[in-house]
Amino acid sequence: MVSLNWPLKAPAPQDMRWLRVEDASAVAACRNAALALAARLRFPATRADQVALAVTEAASNLHKHADQGSLLLRVSRDAQAPQIELVTIDAGPGLADVRAAVRDGHSTTGTLGIGLGAIRRLADFCDLYSIPGHGTALAARFRPAAQPSAGPPQTRWAGLLRPITGETECGDAYGAIQAGDTVTAVLCDGLGHGPLAAAAAAAGVAAVLDEPADGPAALLSRAHRRMSATRGGALGVVQISGQAVTFAGLGNVAASILGHGTRKSMITIPGIAGHQARAFREFEYQVPPGAVVVLHSDGISSRWEAAALPGVEGKDPLLIAAVLLAEAGVHRDDAGVLVLKP
Questions:
Q1: What letter does residue 306 receive in the DSSP assignment?
Q2: What is the pLDDT of residue 150?
Q3: Are the C-beta atoms of 170 and 161 separated by less than 8 Å?
Q4: pLDDT of 145
Q5: DSSP letters of 131-154?
Q6: Is the alpha carbon torsion for 139, 12, 301, 201 positive or negative?
């Protein structure tokens, strides 16, 4: 698994586009968006066509088989060359046999079902997670040129943002950076929605990533001071070293350790970063082998149950984030989720 040594930052609004897939016309819109994004990143024509085919198949699957399907296309700039990431989520009905669904030629309707199998073949990385009665999530990555010998471009951490319906800028933001054996990560939920909330969240994230050597409580205090010129927000900072995790939170950013069918919540202090804080405290936890650390805003309902998502912690962090957004995302609020593997 690749370890990133440069900062992970949330994509800019122009590098991220969510599309609702609820009728046949949306499939063509998704394909056109994929071609436009590949052209902007100067993907070779053959590779651009492969990305467009994969996106078309993903959108077609949503239209034919899913409820409340959504598709995300975004640019990832966390590698030497920009990549295109594809994420799909829906509200059900789920797949009874995931392995069969990703085989070329499989179809749940009796027609030629090259959809999910083709996406896996065309992408540098592709995986999906589905449980009957729950939503399905798919995540895929496309390098400018397919590199089978390079192995799948997996990462130790990944995040997802979805702005509230009607907005293009998300009021949530996240970031992560590694120094030595320690990963420092932050998720900030700016108050309200739109550009002012996005500016507040960006200020909080920058305050942490600019100088991440301090402990989480000190980083939270610095972010609180920096955000005083903004409308403020909720903010959580986590540091991971080995299996040890230290967390400091202010406001309603949820932090938890997810693994083996259980979720252990971390303690956050009431307040508003930038405006109201009585104390900055950090708490230490141990992460069991195979578990992951999850931070999310209140655009992800805190009522999701780990037991309903068996084995999800073993997936790629981007797919885990997509699963949580599919399972508990709230459309009437900005949603942000960050997943980190120790």
A1: G
A2: 60
A3: yes
A4: 87
A5: -TTS-EEEEEEE-SS--GGG----
A6: positive
Angle between helices 45-65 and 25-40 (to 10 degrees): 150
**Residue 114's pLDDT band (cuts 50, 70, 90):** very low
Would the pLDDT of 79 be above 80?
no
Closest to 11 (Cα-Cα) out of 227, 124, 152, 169:
169
Mean pLDDT, residues 211-225 taken together: 96
Q: Strands 69-76 and 262-265: what pairing?
A: unpaired
Q: Are 270 and 251 in contact (CB under 8 A)?
A: yes
Phi, psi at 161, each rounded to 5°: -130, 145
Question: In 10 A of CB 213, how many CB atoms?
Answer: 10
**Given the DSSP bridges, would you call strands 157-162 and 8-9 parallel, antiparallel or unpaired?**
unpaired
Q: What share of the chain is helix, strand, coil (3-state, %, to 5)?
A: 30, 30, 40
Beta-sheet strands, E only, within 65-133: 69-76, 83-89, 125-130
- DSSP state letter for 92: -
The torsion of the CA quartet 223, 226, 232, 236, rounded to 10 degrees, works out to -10
| Separation CA 159–CA 85 (nearest Å) | 12
- Give the H/E segment covering residue 281: none
The beta strands (E) that lie in 136-200 are given as 136-142, 157-162, 172-179, 182-190
Binning pLDDT at 50, 70 and 90, where does residue 89 land?
Answer: very high
Whether the pLDDT of residue 224 is over 70: the answer is yes
Domains and CATH numbers, the chain: 8-150 (3.30.565.10), 157-340 (3.60.40.10)
Q: What is the mean pLDDT of residues 104-126?
A: 68
